[in-house]
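Fig. S4 source data, part A: sequence.
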Amino acid sequence: DPTMSTLTLTPAVVYENENGRGKIHQAVIAIMREAGAIAKGHKNQQQGYMFRGIDDVYNELNPLLAKHGVFSVPEVLEERREERPTKSGGILTSTILRIRYQFYADDGSSLSAVVIGEGMDSGDKSANKAMAVGHKYALVQMFAIPTEEPKDSERESPEPSPRQGLHPVPAKAP
């Protein structure tokens, strides 16, 4: 898809309890109670949208994760790479990773979040970017971190233009 941004993510979060008991549930709830909103304080210059960076998320959550004895371990479940031409004639490497982030409490109990991280780079950093984006969204989803903006993404439903070469198929009457 040539319209893909440099860093994008399609959240696909799945939570599962590995052992049914332990501190992890209480620790996650405690972190959720203490974590503040994280503003979308950075602007993507090419596409004009606002976002919150991985360092913003780490700066807010790291002290709380340490305080409550929670850490995460990534496991790449699937990887897809492809090369894409740039407008200037260069090559971008696009990496899409399906990653499980296992969140552990200090007693060994755990929860996992499975996310899709995507990154593009003209050098060797597309997988690093995909990992960072995946971790950011695993953290945001796991701890339900709000933004500071009142705008809900579901309030807007832009009308997509038809894809070239494809023609809409009318729905069949019941």
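Fig. S4 source data, part B ends here. The beta strands are 7-10, 16-17, 42-43, 50-51, 71-85, 91-104, 110-121.
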